[in-house]
Predict the 3D structure of the following.
Amino acid sequence: MIPNSASISINETVTPTLSFQPSDATKTVTWSSSDSSIASVSTTGTITGKNGGSATIYAKSTLNQNIYATVSITVKAAKQCVGISYTGTPEKLDYFEGESFDPTGITVTARYNDDSTSDVTSQVVWSPSKLTLETSEVTGTFNGFNVYFKPLK
């Protein structure tokens, strides 16, 4: 089977090519996957990535199940945020009651499961939305992860 291995993303498809020996051999096969939750295969051989992981796809002769070809499929896991951190110091530290926190001077960086990072400062939700005299800490939230900033004056 060509290719004999492939790496695809979730929802990406690939269709391997079969070659038959001898050339006049019956060319009917059944397709199956060792783990269809990772990679599924249609009756025509189209492989679809479902979840991160590895699976083996089999093309077995309909005349003799002992004659088969395989392709190893690796499905890359979806990129997911695994944490956030911040650097810098807010330019504004003095606030009046009712004002909103100004994150100017802070950069919030997200870390992902593929070891990449990105600046998500503009996507962070800061709370509380309005500061009070009792506010001593501000929370920045992105994708379910938090960073905390204190002290405020």
